[in-house]
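Input record (one chain):
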Amino acid sequence: MARVFWVGIAIGLVFSNWVDGFAEYGYEHYFNETELSQLEAHEASLSLEGRNPLLVGLTLIQTANAKGAVCLDGTLPGYHLHRGYGSGSHSWLINLEGGGWCNNVRTCVYRKKTRRGSSAFMEKEIPFTGILSNNPEENPDFYNWNRVKLRYCDGASFSGDGEDQTAQLQFRGQRIWAAAMEDLMSKGMRFADQALLSGCSAGGLATIIHCDEFRGLFSRTTRVKCLSDAGLFLDAIDVSGGHTLRNLYSGVVGLQEAQKNLPQTCTDHLDPTSCFFPQNLIANVRTPLFILNAAYDSWQIQSSLAPPSADPHGYWHDCRLNHAKCTRSQIQFLQGFRNHMLNAIKDFSKSNRNGLFINSCFSHCQTERQDTWFADDSPVIRNKAIALAVGDWYFDRADVKAIDCPYPCDNTCHHLIFR
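The corresponding structure, as predicted from the sequence alone:
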């Protein structure tokens, strides 16, 4: 079975950050910060081994300050843009960065001292891999498009609009989204004949929240679709019978005043916290939407289903780090989580305009990593890699509703294993 191990520098970074977080802030704090998993922060390293990827510089949005569209600490937001050419010169791919959430003043204050809350700490250049790659052999359908990575520095999936003056925190995710779209439209995106909004994890949730807004930027003749990768966060019961993720989301929505920017098709009949869960949003998204998710999402296992706070005796510790160490009863619990996911997408899947790729892997975020997006040994369902499935759906070459058989039947997975 294909497995991906974090080794060398990558694994050193992961565990040094884990240890630093636990030592300085305590176990519960670091969990609540939700950068704890480091899945989003370091997965890119898995794509870089033995490669020489395109590096793209950071552009700060100079007009953002006048709109109050700033990061948690008040710095300017930014994005990385690599221009398209040839047949892709009028096509745009916008990728929303992920990176967890902050749910109270303490975690947001901590976050504003990192790249997830301040452009002062953002990398000046980042590698473009997977769906952002400029290599046709690595990204056959989108390699020559205008490709943008919008950096994430608000902590609420680009949805909040409030502030805490005492803590000097700006919750301006919605304004950042709007300012970035306005800036990109002025740089040629308004002439797009094709556009795709994508995002991974917290960025995948943001993609679902903003999908119809994105569609509204363009003319009716523009082909516009959305792709959510690892963004199907479920309102699931954790191993202690509690609601870890719902409690976290309640804090995010309340603190950052996200309720006023969540889709009204949801908030007119459900509470705001429920409307931060994709399972309550996807049925009402009018724009064609593709959901890509691992049925055993590593982030949700570690941080929502079996976090240390719900597992004080450590019964899930080994299973959380390596699926091969799960007991039969733990696998049975995780099969229930998969069933929950399949039930959540049942109505969504009935629409011909929507696409699905649910593979039975212990993974998280598969579009931005080259090994999972498109490589010789990429994960497949019915012999089709993720990149080809997304391309077939986007260009209407085929109907794509790919749902894997339950674990352990898929031997093409690149499972995330921590050791």
